Amino acid sequence: MGLMNGLDDKFVKKIPGMPVVIASAEWAINAGRSNSIWTLTFGLRCCAMEMMATGAAKYDWARFGFEVPAASPRRADLMIVAGTITTKMAPLVKRLYEQMAEPKYVIAMGACAISGGPFIYDSYSVIKGADKVIPVDIYIPGCPPRPEALLDGMIKLQKKIMKQKLTRVAP
Amino acid sequence: MNFQEILEKIKSKHEVLESKEDLGVLNAYIAPAKIAAVASFLKEELGFTQLNFITAVDLPANNSLEVVYRFLSYTTADAVVLKVKLDRAKAAVETISGVFQTADWHERETAEMFGITFLKHPDPNRLILPDGIEAPLRKDYKNPDMIPLPKA
């Protein structure tokens, strides 16, 4: 099982002579989540081209567990906001995010999704960043970011998921 | 046809207020009430069968809005630009969507972007802009969400 290669003993204990491993439930659930993230098939503007290239054969994000582009927000775990969000598009982006099932993650890809990018000044229609509409986990700079940069951001998201706690403290 | 010949042909039937050449293309100013008649003349008599686009230019210094129409002829590969000067306070011009059907959406876009009324338009609703944004391409447009460009 490649999943357990190079893991620390404190996460997984192999029992000698038996095909059984003991791991903490938190680690196992987080490992399952972070290695089978389904991305929402959703692109707003030109960054979506770079996102498609990252998903296609040459860069192939399936290597890192982003196997299936989910065609419905109800099946998706990850929304990649790839492009400019306009005033008219913002409610639709928000609705897609709300339709996704928990746990859900958002990557803001490119300058427009971070801050409005080249449209930040004198623009009557551009929302100044995806985080004005939905919560964002990872920001990837670039205009557009290279596929390597997107993959790097996605791997950083996997690391972030691995640090999640299963229990929540009531507010 | 060069621009001089096209200008002569238009002048023979319709009044041209003002004209100039821009990159080999005739730019002719027409009275707002005449635009549909001139567009029809260009289409039927001179063979300008395609309307490339309709847009507008806001010139606050002259207190005028210019609606710009560009026509193309497939037989001679010539182009003509017609312009109409309007008052900024009450900008209204007759529609040409009866002559060119494609003018329908072009005029709706120009109307919402520049706050121009196209009279007798078959469907004078908004095309793309969401509610609450009025005439954003006018130079004096203000919006509380807009961050002004810093002076360099």
Description:
The complex is a heterodimer of chains A (171) and B (152). Chain A has 171 residues and is an alpha/beta fold. Chain A has a single domain (38-158), classed as Rossmann fold (3-Layer(aba) Sandwich). Chain A contains five helices and seven strands. Chain A has helices spanning 25-34, 47-55, 90-99, 110-115, 147-162; strands spanning 12-14, 21-23, 39-40, 69-70, 78-82, 105-109, 138-140. In chain A, the strands form three sheets. In chain A, strands 5-6-7 form a three-stranded parallel β-sheet. A two-stranded antiparallel sheet of chain A has the order 1-2. In chain A, strand 1 (12-14) and strand 2 (21-23) form a beta hairpin. In chain A, helix 1 (25-34) packs antiparallel against helix 5 (147-162) and helix 2 packs across helix 5 (147-162). The radius of gyration of chain A is 18 Å and the shape is elongated. The mean pLDDT of chain A is 88. Chain B is α/β, with parallel strands linked by helices and 152 residues long. Chain B has a domain at 3-94: Beta Polymerase, domain 2 (2-Layer Sandwich), CATH 3.30.460.80. In chain B, the strands form two sheets. Chain B has a five-stranded mixed β-sheet with strand order 1-2-5-4-3. A two-stranded parallel ribbon of chain B has the order 6-7. In chain B, strand 1 and strand 2 form a beta hairpin. Chain B is globular and about 50 Å long. Classes of the chains: A alpha/beta (171), B alpha/beta (152).
